[in-house]
């Protein structure tokens, strides 16, 4: 991690900061080895050039999910990447194949639900976002595929989340390898439920963690050859025994003590417990409760977990009795006795706890007291009993408590292993190691020494694994790696564990000598390791020593090393507990061997731990390791706080920085050829313009820049430390020169733009001035032209006025003469018209009288003839009524219906009659008024004409005497009077015309209203008919359901013991109907005839047995031929499946629906099932889907349960149909004619006129089985299509990278090829959809089912694409959004093209009631197969729309949630917004305010218990019912379907050849 030397002025770099650890800034000046940096917080820092690191200014704003992708792999870069991702709630990050998990200190349930497990199942490592499930999935897949065991090592300091991470690993592995329950519990359930038990007895609250594991745990999950969990084993390491007796504030003891104190009252009273404050082992700290934890509930949860893992009720009670005994044991206190160095029980309170402890342990009270305050020493001469002083007695008490608890914990672990069970035949396992992380406190004792020793061992294993991964990477890329150095910590491990001379060996030696003390032990360490660079002796202490671990120096206090290393059981304690009357307590202390009891009782904890650790390392070495490093972001245990120094220390302790050092020792920067050319292609544009290979192009760029020491592999470029920064510096120089060129061009453009604008303003000013001068000239010319025009108009006015006066005088004179002539003419015409009117009235009266007489005679004749015809028809009806006496009940019902309809018809007629009468009256009134007006107008015209004629005659007859001035004056007055009268008549005529127009308008309005009322009346009638039909269908359905229930009840009664009498009837009483057995209806018995035959002839049953047998054989042959026929592909006839139609006709003819017992239904179902064995044959599946849906539709519209006839309303039939039914009923004496007539009667008129058949139980069961097969076939077709397009969807979620040619501008052909490659996968999906759609259409599958398939497939596409988009950050880019948008356009085009033109049968069109409907359907109809499938893509469409919009920072939250993405939830929008990155234009995502608002809403949702899962779930249910199919499918006419040749020539299937008229 050495700093690069190519730091230049202007570079962005990281420098050390005392508060933030690292801070970025810009280099201002470089003076030798000193660098002046201006940091982002405004400070100026001067530091050495070796202590600064370059910063990647082009790093994604959301960080990278794998830190090996960082351009600069160093400590500040790693820290910045983790901080960026943690801010976005991305708590998981890869470093190669190492997973770093940062504790969020809040619940993120959406990251661990079942949807997330389904997404990571089988996914390639690194394909989806980093996750603990991905590590578990890689381990599981490697175990399955390679057959090698794997292990997952989870490490981190207390509070980092190791335990929760381990739980998630176990859950996911149980999800992958779960199996069906065995004896009520599965292995994976017991393994998962073992966690609460171990946490209750092995976890405690510490300063750093409320649920800190105080022991190490390694869980081995064993798998069988099928990858199912077959067994498990739990191994624990180094339980912290001292915590039982000694705790400090604010820590707590183990959880089980507090859980027991919060147990139900009966247990508290039974064990004589109380508040935790009353017990010495618990009240050493004032912390008794945990925030958010209810100890009473946790106690019940622990008991339930014990039940699941197989701990019996008696064992549970014994366990908690021991726990209570330890609490009471801690309250026993001692006082100084009468003798020297002796002790006694202090007081009555202590005596009470002593008695309670003995009672709970079921041992003798006095023996317990002696074991605590006395010791027995055996010498060769005698046995000496020694008393202990109070201090030693307290030590004896604590030693007993620790021993009991330690043995109890070991028993629990052993019990869990026995209960879970191990598989001796298992060849593969996955181990999950939950071990304590590196610890360094102010006071570090023996526990910290063992913990850090463990971490040193694991760090060596980790370093070897990382080094091995580096080697594998280099070998895979075929580069030279022989010179890479590897830092090992073997010298540290030798110093600790080497024999002899190691720290553990020296500690064991010191423990064996009675006179050894911690001081002598420390001096021995000083002497042994005085020259070891890993060992440091503090200056101011005589017992402390410091060890330089890989994570830093740790100072240990050796004061209690000797005591904590001794693991022995006091003989008195052993004897006391072995003698316990409780088998459980006695079992915790098995008797020691004879040799062991006589020899030293000392046992080294350190040595035993070293052996356990060695065994663990051997196990890990034999497995393929996977590492998870848990990190605690802060010490206050609160979310959204990221402490840099704390994180760096944990990364250092977790070995992550050590792994980075190993990577930096080799080639820390690795880029694929595409990424390298994309970033550094600007350094050599000529290389990109050539037709060189990508590898050769990278080589040419590196050689041109003179770099040394790099390596080029098969797919990647490997750069040494510092070379990336050097290339970036040169790239920045090239980009800087380009930027200066661009700036120069921009400045030129701006200056020219200013000049052009000034010139334009000058030209505009000149234009304005010239325009103003032209306006003045124009105004002068306009005034002159106006004066000339005024003069001209005045002269014209004078001349016109003179002419007008002359003209008016001439006209007045002419008018007088013409008026005189008109008056004379008017008088003559008036007299003539009066005569004509009288003649017209007389002729009209004579014609009307003659017509009335003829009309009366015709009506009389018609009435007589109609009466005669009516009498004849009444006679016929009375004769028909006598013949149809059996239908009287139906007649009554029909009469009621007719009366009701007649009443409604009369009401409608009355309303229509009233409306027509009102309309007729109004029309008559308007016509009368119009006629009167026309008469008045004609009279006025005639008067005017007469007056004009009279005036003309008067003028002609008048002598030309000019002297008669008075007469002329009188005529002029008359003329004026006539003129006035004419004007008044014209006005009256005009008003009458207006009145007529208004009347016409009113008439038109009345007609419009009348038409609207008629239309409403027709709509009301149609709605009434629809409601009536719906009521009838509901009543039929209700009656069918009730009858089916009745049949099922009868069937249950027949099976039950009380119904045995039904099965004792003679077999001859039930005769199945066949075409040869005569008229027997519904399989019923003819009891009376049987009895009469039995009386008359005792050999009757024997004679009837032979024809019955022959009939059954013939029917069996017909059934065999039918089954053989339908097992073949019979094809389609006119779009109707032949097999379904033949099956339906045969079953209907054979009366199979109406018999109690038949095997034909089972044989048909078996035939269909055998045809579906090949599940991948889409053509066969589509064929049977079409047949089963058609057959089910026919059954749905034909069958009804028995007993439903009385409840089902009868359909309306025509008179001819009912007469034909009576005729066919009378012809049933002939079997063949009965079948033909029955079938023809049903086919006549289509499906609407079919009467329903009362079906028995086998027919109803057959209908249910057929429904199940239909749903199964539908699901198989849907799932097959899903399987076919699922791999293509994985390729469609991310846009394929364009070739290097697209990086060079001007390559239109390359861009066209790249564009074609982008949609190739989408076109493959479209081809698959087209193929399946063609198959379904070729097999005439109902469009309703095709639409359902398309809808569910598009929903599946929506779920897969949307979930993948949310789980893969590289997919949330701008260019990928454009790619997805283009692909969705292909799907939209397919939806619009998925139609078919279907011609409509002319005979069906004639049945339509309305001419408008017939003209609409006669031409053609279009079937839309896609349906609403396009709407199912709403999530991915809106997400893609969000990705490709511009100016995202300007969008508000309301605009996003209401306008852009109304369907997406806040969690989904937050996920997309934080993962978005623009790889095309470099724009940013939404603003920080919008992100903050989203977080607030997400927090509110989590508080309100709203589901926070952002993934979608695929719906695999059956989205339709039988009723939906029945309503959606059209009527099927099966009368003219030709039978197949196999059965056409068979005499038993003659009925299939009959056609309906």
What's the overall average pLDDT, rounded? 79
Give me the side-by-side strand order of the main sheet. 6-7-21-8-17-11-12
How would you classify the quaternary structure? single chain
What's the name of the CATH homologous superfamily of the domain at 186-210 and 224-427 and 568-597? Myosin VI head, motor domain, U50 subdomain
- In the predicted model, the low-confidence regions spanning at least 5 consecutive residues are 1-5, 595-600, 961-969, 1054-1106, 1204-1249, 1299-1310, 1397-1422
Question: Biggest sheet, in brief?
Answer: 7 strands, mixed
Number of helices: 49
Shape: extended
Distance between the termini: 96 Å
Under CATH at level 1, the class of the domain at 186-210 and 224-427 and 568-597 stands as: Mainly Alpha
Instruction: Identify the CATH architecture of the domain at 186-210 and 224-427 and 568-597.
Output: Up-down Bundle
Helix fraction by DSSP (H/I, runs of at least 4) = 55-70%
Domain Myosin N-terminal SH3-like: 8-57
GO molecular function, one term: microfilament motor activity
Region (Actin-binding): 613-635
Coiled coil: 877-957, 982-1051
